[in-house]
Amino acid sequence: MEKEASIKALVKEKYTSIATQSTEQNVASCCGATACCGEGTYTIMADDYSSLEGYNPDADLGLGCGLPTEFAKIKSGDTVIDLGSGAGNDAFIARRLTGEAGKVIGIDFTEAMINKARANAEKLGLNNVEFRQGDIESMPVTSNYADVIVSNCVLNLVPNKYKVISEIFRVLKPGGHFSISDIVLEGELPAKWKEVAELYAGCVSGAIQKQVYLEIIEAAGFTNIIIQKDKTIQIPDSILANYMDAAAIEAFKQSNTRITSITVYAEKPAKDDRECCEPGSGCC
């Protein structure tokens, strides 16, 4: 628990700093701040949102690793929750899809991000987009509430992946679904990387094995699990050089380790026949 608390404190500190920076500053390294990974502009994880309806440049901090709203099958009138909503980028695009009849709730545990997102919503004049401060391991949302949940490069920052996936199951309505973009691994990262706290906040060392990630989703009770997109993340040598020498860089590049951004879709069954108690209680 002490380690989980220290990780959360690190992430909160890092993303509080990021909330006060421009998009250009945030994409200037692998983990969202130039002090961490050296100079140079590397949009090594982010996808381009600018052509999507509802895009607002003030809300785009360049921190995502996919376009989950593009795959989320959001319909007019849906209630959508965005986990780790940041300055509101995905929430505002989701709002474009739900229309005035729907509702979008963004959840983030960084106060500075919540304030930034609320200010953006105010400027846009949106009265059915709400931002709540809270921990996505224990969401401030009632059970069976959302039609759709989206998230963009956030679950890798959460120490207890089992808990947050269980929370997603709890909050979705029976028959609801999620589409989540996240960083996962195939093969092992260099041991040193796992000890570098900044790389956790940068979405790399917090990532888990792709197969384990999918198994956690299945164990929580989700069905029809589909990988909607799979994109290899190439980390530039100039960033790698902050953590290893030239020989180690070459060995890493020749290894079978793959850092990848995946967008995963899964559904909560309309009826749960597993004879479990409340999701997240540990019974299943």
Describe the structure.
Helix 1 runs parallel beside helix 6 (about 110-125). Residues about 30-45 have low confidence and may be disordered. The chain is about 35% helix and about 20% strand. It has a seven-stranded mixed beta sheet with strand order 3-2-1-4-5-7-6. The chain starts with a helix and ends in a 17-residue tail after the last strand. It is built from eleven helices and seven strands. The protein is an alpha/beta fold and about 280 residues long. It is globular.
Question: How do the helices and strands line up, and which of them pair or pack?
Answer:
Layout: H1 2-19, H2 23-26, H3 34-37, H4 68-71, E1 79-83, H5 89-98, E2 103-108, H6 111-124, E3 129-133, E4 146-152, H7 161-171, E5 172-186, H8 197-201, H9 210-219, E6 223-232, H10 237-240, H11 246-254, E7 258-267
Parallel strand pairs: 1-2, 1-4, 2-3, 4-5
Antiparallel strand pairs: 5-7, 6-7
